[in-house]
C-alpha cells in the first residue's frame, strides 16, 4: 500500500492531539471501541515477535477501589521526595483519572513468554517490556483516532496490582491505562500547561 499526503496529515493530527488524559467524562465506551483497541495491539512490534503483553480489564468495583487506594498511597509517598514548594505543586496535579475512566486496563509483560524463542533479548532482556510499551502506544494512537483519551498511570505499587488482579508470578506490570472520552482536549501536555515541566525538542545528535 502506498500512503499519500492525506495519510500523513491524519497521522500528524493524531500525534499532535494524542495527549495523556486524566480528566474523563464518565460515559461508557461502545463495545466496538474495546474490540478496536484490542485488535490494535495485534499490530504492535515485539522482540522476536514474542508478543509478551497480557491485558486485564479492571472492571469490578472491588478491584477498582483497591487500585485507587494503591494510587493514593503511592502518590503520597511520591510527594514526600519534594521540597515544600515543589510538593505543593505536585499535590495540586491530577495524575490519574482512576475515579472516572470507564475502561481501565492493567497491561503486563509475561517475562516467561516462550513465543519468540528468546530471539533478540539475550543481551537486553528488558526488550520484552519495551515490546509491551509499543503495544500500549499503538493502542494509545488508535484510541486518539477514535476520539478516545488514554492516561498512563505509573504511580502504583506493582506488587499490589499483581496481587489484586491475581496474575501469574511471571507477569510484570508495565502500564495501567485509564481510557474514556476526554473531558477536554488539548494539543499540549498538561504538565507543560500547568508549569510542572515544559516540553523540549528531541535531542538528536550526529557523531
Ligand atoms: C511510562 C509512562 C508513565 C506515565 N505515568 C504517568 C502517571 O502516573 N501519571 C500521569 O499523570 N501521567 C503519566 N504519564 C503521562 C506523562 O505525564 C505524559 O506523557 C507527559 O507529561 C507528556 O504529555 P503527553 O503524553 O500529553 O504528551 C506517563 C507516561 C508514560 C510514557
Explain what the structure shows.
The chain has a single domain (21-187), classed as NADH Oxidase. It has 7 helices and 4 strands, in the order ααβααβαβαβα. It has helices spanning 5-17, 31-41, 61-79, 84-92, 127-145, 158-164, 190-193; strands spanning 53-57, 103-110, 149-153, 171-180. α2 runs antiparallel to α5 (127-145). The protein is globular and about 50 Å long. The model has no long low-confidence stretch (mean pLDDT 97). Bound molecules: flavin mononucleotide. Flavin mononucleotide binds at residues 19-20, 22, 95-96, 152-155, 189, 191. This is Cob(II)yrinic acid a,c-diamide reductase. GO terms for molecular function: oxidoreductase activity. Residues 16-181 form the Nitroreductase domain.
Q: Could you write a compact summary of the structure shown?
A:
This protein has a 4-stranded antiparallel sheet with strand order 1-2-4-3, with helices on both faces. It has helices at 5-17, 31-41, 61-79, 84-92, 127-145, 158-164, 190-193; strands at 53-57, 103-110, 149-153, 171-180.
Amino acid at each position: 500500500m502506498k500512503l499519500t499526503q492525506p495519510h500523513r496529515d491524519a497521522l500528524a493530527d493524531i500525534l499532535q492531539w494524542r495527549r495523556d488524559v486524566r480528566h474523563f467524562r464518565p460515559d461508557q465506551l461502545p463495545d466496538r471501541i474495546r474490540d478496536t483497541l484490542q485488535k490494535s495491539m495485534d499490530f504492535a512490534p515485539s522482540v522476536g515477535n514474542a508478543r509478551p503483553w497480557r491485558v486485564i480489564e479492571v472492571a469490578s468495583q472491588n478491584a477498582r477501589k483497591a487500585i485507587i487506594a494503591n494510587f493514593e498511597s503511592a502518590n503520597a509517598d511520591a510527594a514526600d521526595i519534594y521540597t515544600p514548594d515543589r510538593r505543593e505543586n505536585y499535590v495540586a496535579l491530577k495524575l490519574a483519572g482512576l475515579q472516572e475512566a470507564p475502561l481501565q486496563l492493567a497491561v503486563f509483560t509475561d517475562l516467561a513468554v516462550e513465543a519468540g524463542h528468546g530471539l533478540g533479548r539475550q543481551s537486553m532482556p528488558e526488550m520484552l517490556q519495551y515490546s509491551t510499551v509499543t503495544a500500549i502506544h499503538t493502542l494509545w494512537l488508535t484510541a486518539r483516532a477514535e476520539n478516545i483519551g488514554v492516561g498512563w498511570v505509573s504511580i502504583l505499587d506493582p506488587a499490589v496490582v499483581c496481587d489484586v488482579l491475581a496474575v501469574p508470578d511471571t507477569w510484570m506490570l508495565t502500564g495501567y491505562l485509564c481510557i474514556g472520552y476526554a473531558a477536554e482536549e488539548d494539543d499540549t501536555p498538561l504538565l507543560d500547561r500547568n508549569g510542572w515541566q515544559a516540553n523540549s525538542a528531541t535531542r538528536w545528535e550526529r557523531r
